[in-house]
Structure to design on (275 residues):
């Protein structure tokens, strides 16, 4: 069935031509970060830029998520390079989401005792959004590490490139402490928290064993344009290997299975796109 949704371009280093514009935009933002790092010393300007970029870099988290499900390039070296760029924006290094999210959450999202992004407390009650955000963000690396011990082929790149990324970021901070903190370290922390915050809406409160009743969906066009159709969340969980550009078509095939009360606007949409 999945082959029906795959239409990769064969003459490109990209697996799917739809990824070209998102990657171009993210690379452009990365270049701007480094230009500012080497040329700007004014703390007011750097703080202003950090605040201005909280939302754009939060949106980049969605594209890092897509990449961890289905690698963007055919070439491994290009994928590792893109993951380093993603890490600088999102705080999520190579293979962390592949372990925590793809091999963890997607396997266990119907089981709140094992889900790596679980929204239930140990006593079975529902966490609040702040509690959930802090727990999921603060345990992201430890839970990813725990999953990784079961998947050594995925675990090794995670350890290697997390170490490399950490060393490079440490050098950037050592060389220019203020710029390094405001352009890289703080955005990494903020984006990881932002990622956890917006995922609270995906499954919170849906205690079910039916995969078609376990995710909220957001069909707002602007939200899906910004996040690569992440609002088609039931379809994404139904076939997580489907490229983000094919999710609307997959959703159309299964929408009869999705209860109407599972369509709503997310926290992200309510905050930034409007009601």
């Amino acid at each position: 069935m999945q082959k029906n949704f795959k239409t990769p371009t064969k003459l490109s280093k990209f697996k799917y031509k739809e990824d070209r514009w998102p990657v171009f935009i993210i690379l452009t933002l990365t270049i701007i970060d480094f230009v500012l790092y080497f040329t700007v010393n004014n703390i007011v300007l750097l703080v202003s830029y950090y605040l201005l970029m909280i939302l754009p870099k939060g949106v980049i988290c969605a594209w890092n998520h897509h990449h961890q499900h289905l690698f963007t390039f055919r070439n491994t070296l290009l994928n590792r390079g893109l993951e380093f760029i993603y890490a600088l924006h999102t705080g999520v290094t190579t293979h962390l989401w592949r372990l925590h999210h793809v091999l963890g959450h997607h396997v266990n999202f119907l089981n709140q005792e094992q889900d790596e992004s679980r929204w239930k407390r140990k006593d079975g009650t529902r966490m609040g959004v702040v509690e959930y955000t802090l727990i999921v963000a603060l345990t992201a690396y430890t839970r990813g590490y725990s999953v990784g011990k079961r998947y050594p082929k995925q675990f090794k790149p995670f350890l290697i490139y997390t170490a490399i990324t950490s060393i490079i970021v440490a050098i950037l901070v050592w060389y220019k402490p203020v710029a390094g903190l405001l352009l890289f370290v703080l955005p990494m922390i903020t984006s990881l928290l932002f990622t956890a915050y917006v995922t609270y809406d995906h499954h919170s409160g849906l205690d079910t064993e039916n995969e078609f009743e376990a995710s909220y969906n957001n069909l707002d066009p602007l939200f899906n344009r910004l996040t690569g159709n992440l609002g088609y969340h039931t379809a994404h969980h139904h076939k997580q290997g489907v490229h983000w550009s094919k999710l609307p078509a997959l959703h159309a095939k299964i929408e009869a299975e999705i209860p109407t009360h599972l369509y709503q606007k997310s926290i992200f949409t309510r905050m930034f796109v409007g009601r």
Q: What stands out?
A: The chain has two domains: 14-207, 212-275. Residues 1-9 have pLDDT under 50 and may be disordered. Residues 14-207 form one domain. The two ends are 36 Å apart (CA to CA).
